[in-house]
UniProtKB/TrEMBL annotation:
Residue ranges annotated for the Alliinase C-terminal domain, each copy included: 25-379
Cofactors required: pyridoxal 5'-phosphate
Identification of the protein by name: Alliinase C-terminal domain-containing protein
Keywords: Aminotransferase, Pyridoxal phosphate, Signal, Transferase
Origin organism lineage: Eukaryota, Viridiplantae, Streptophyta, Embryophyta, Tracheophyta
Family to which this protein belongs: Belongs to the alliinase family.
Amino acid sequence: SSFLSNSTSNSSAIDEFDDDQGRVINLDHGDPTMYESYWRQAGDKTTVVISGWQAMSYFSDVRNICWFLEPELAKEVIRLHKIVGNAVTEGRHIVAGTGSTQLFQAALYALSYGGTEPISVVSATPYYSFYRQVVEYMKSGLYKWAGDASSFNEDKPYIELITSPNNPDGFMRQPVVNRSKGMLVHDFAYYWPQYTPITSPADHDIMLFTVSKCTGHAGMRIGWALVKDEEIARRMTKYIELSSIGVSKDSQFRAAKIVKAVSDSCEHAYDSNFFEVSYHVMSQRWSRLRDAVKKSGMFSTPKFPPAFCKYSNRTFGTQPAFAWLKCEGDIEDCESFLRDHKILTRSGKHFGMSPKYVRISMLDQDSNYDLFTKRLSAMRS
Ligand code: PMP
């Protein structure tokens, strides 16, 4: 089976081996390994060599609020947002983080700092399951998890997390709690043109981005926050100082190089334009999934309204990085049903929803994705 997982999508080869019946397909995590093939064919232009004497200091730019941010990364991040048009960068401070996961915690720290009691953190269900775990694991005195934003009605300050497009269900989102004492954190991990139409540049107080789901380099652990308020940017930087004294320079160099390659591909190369290539992979995967769902008749997936993408000049509906699949009929536990077919997914209950739902990664390698849709289309109730 290592032969099979190394081969590119060759379903006739898969057909001949009955051992694929026994192969476990793990689509639980959103590991973006799908992107490996793009970067493989991009070759050496993104190879980074760092000598022993380089990048030794803790500091990158002491004049910047975020003193550990590499200027080259800052430059490439701004350039990419300009090209894609997905976020306003003028008048923003950039804070780098070890993934957007660290920045999310930095934002909570910065927003709740100085409060007299733990501030409520809310997000509308179904929400990104990791938020809750991260908020709860330290038993912080600064903030506490208060669950579904739709049912939050305390007349107190709160922090609302808005993920758009949303993980797990893929819908575009706006704040749900409609009160004046709210502080908002916008998580834009998936606001990139391979997933969803870029309708306007996002313009909010705290916006989180990450290379993980943009370029597929989750292992690099690089994210960035665009922050309007200087004091908040300072406190976020302080949090990262206290938790890790900055962010790996090696990773920042590599991220700058990758992000630059993406921008270059958008400006110079039509047939290897990163977002074009990725858009087509996602589009094919979603149509394959919808076919399989139709054939099987056991499941349903959300429908996304088409919108005009100002980046690609194309009208399309969101094609999310996760499929939010519902078992129709009388199967109550979709996760264990699929596990019996050796497909590992994440149950809706982790996202504050019914176990009739599961979240399925759409970003795995071709061979796994092919086998997954093949198995799904053969399922009957
Ligand atoms: N936010 C959302 C909504 C995500 O889905 C993820 C990745 N699963 C993250 C943040 C974390 O990304 P990072 O790898 O940058 O920490």
